[in-house]
Amino acid sequence: MRKWLLAAVAACTLGANAGCLLPIYSADPARRAQQLIYNSEDFRSLLDEWERIWFLDQPSHMKPYRTSGLIL
Length: 72
Prior knowledge:
Residues 1-18 form the signal peptide. By secondary structure, the chain is mainly alpha-helical.
């Protein structure tokens, strides 16, 4: 029974590793290039999404010099 359980866990582990046993991208070079571009655009937009979630994309209201607030 223990051997069957160990074999099932090993099969699930190897089956979940889709990058090594099963190709992630298409074999057609044109289609593969399109898939890689889409994938890299997703990674690029991840940083923008992270900054939006943590409110880091807001403009800074801090000035490098002190202002008095008077209209000159």
